[in-house]
Amino acid sequence: MQFPRVLPIGLSRLSTYAELTKPELTGLSALTSVFAYVLAADSQATWLTAAMVGSGTLLVGGGAGALNQLIERRFDAMMKRTEHRPLPSGRVRALETGAFGVLLALAGALLLWIEAGPLPSFISLLTLALYLGIYTPLKRKTWLNTVFGTIPGALPVLIGWTAAETTPSAGGWFLFLFLVIWQFPHFFSLAWMYRKDYERAGYHMLSVQDTENAHQTHRINLLSTLSLLPVVSIFFYYESTGPMAIPAAVSLTLWLVSISAKPIVRGLANTSTTRTINADSRNLFFASLLYLPLVMILGLVSRA
Questions:
Q1: Contacts of 235 (CB under 8 A, 6+ apart)
Q2: Alpha-carbon 155 to chain mean position
Q3: Domain for residue 4, yes or no?
Q4: Which residues contact 271 (CB under 8 A, 6 or more apart)?
Q5: Residue 51 domain-assigned (yes or no)
Q6: Residue 94 CB partners (closer than 8 Å, separation 6+)
Q7: What's the total number of domains in the chain?
Q8: What is the residue-level pLDDT of the chain in tens, covering all 304 positions?
Q9: Are residues 112 and 120 in contact, defined by beta-carbon separation less than 8 angstroms?
Q10: pTM for the model
Q11: Of 56, 82, 219, 281, whose Cβ has the fewest other Cβ atoms within 10 Å?
Q12: Residue 14 vs residues 6, 18, 92: alpha-carbon distances, Å
């Protein structure tokens, strides 16, 4: 008689723990680490190692997400976007979250050490330390937090790459640089979408300090997407075997550039409104989400 009630309670608890890990962010990090491993290992790549690299990265990233929510729980409660997270909503306790985060991170680092070696494991813990020790506190001090945050955001590709090569080749470093630059339009457009939330919680984001026409945000987004052009070209020069890989990668990047340029063109034509600025930021955010996996798919296909 009680079994039907126990099942949903258990699933609800699992859902709460999953929410603590920031699954969208950690899933993307795990995906980039697996992509990097497969590229670096090439014909030597195995399904088992790819799965273990992805799982280890996912676990460490999930631990980082839980510990980040523990640190920022008071501020999450001030923002509409995050007020329903497990800690602000009272669905889980702080001590429980801390223990869960530490256990996940240690399990992931151990898994990487066993399957991929000490270097990927070390990089995973370095990612955790930079994310929690540098990026997280800087969010309350300077809008440059995003600049520093791109480093732990891009390090998962080196986790994957060093699982195949002890020393990353030029392709690995250019992939790392690519991920660093990609994060600027991705996160600055997101920050503009939720600028009121960030301001309410006291976060020092560029979108909070920017003018109502988002002049600085739009300019940095355009410069960032333009910077992707040489980086993605050099990356595919080192890592692709297909003659059409570089033109295809450049075409994809030009598409992203065109989206980031649209609000600047509107501004020059004096046709910008609050509605168009918000819509352009939303479009760039979702375009960046689509662009990254398309580039990764192209990278894999061009090596086939």
A1: 171, 174, 175, 178, 249, 299
A2: 10
A3: no
A4: none
A5: yes
A6: 70, 73, 87
A7: 2
A8: 343 333 345 677 889 999 999 999 999 999 999 999 999 998 899 999 999 999 999 999 999 999 999 999 999 999 999 999 999 999 999 999 999 999 999 999 999 999 999 999 999 999 999 999 999 999 999 999 999 999 999 999 999 999 999 888 898 999 999 999 999 999 999 999 999 999 999 999 999 998 888 999 999 999 999 999 999 999 999 887 778 899 999 999 999 999 999 999 998 888 888 899 999 999 999 999 999 999 999 999 887 6
A9: yes
A10: 0.92
A11: 219
A12: 13, 6, 11
What is the rounded CA–CA span in Å between residue 244 and residue 212?
Answer: 42
Range of the domain at 150: 12-167
DSSP category for residue 78: T
Sign of CA dihedral 271, 277, 283, 284: positive
Whether 157 and 185 map to the same domain: the answer is: no
Spatial distance between the Cα atoms of 135 and 149, rounded to a whole number of angstroms: 5
**Token pair belonging to 150:** 């791109």
Rounded to 10 degrees, the C-alpha dihedral 256/261/266/268 comes to -170
Domain boundary among 128, 152, 167: 167
Is residue 43 one of the residues assigned to a domain?
yes
Tokens, residue 102: 């530490």
| Contact present, 188 and 146 (Cβ < 8 Å) | yes
Closest CA to 207 of 139, 264, 256: 139
- Residues 140, 194 within the same domain: no
Contact 100, 62 (CB under 8 A): no
Name the residue type at position 44: Q
Q: State the DSSP code for 155.
A: T
In a shared domain, residues 23 and 157: yes
The C-alpha atoms of residue 57 and residue 63 are separated, in whole angstroms, by: 10
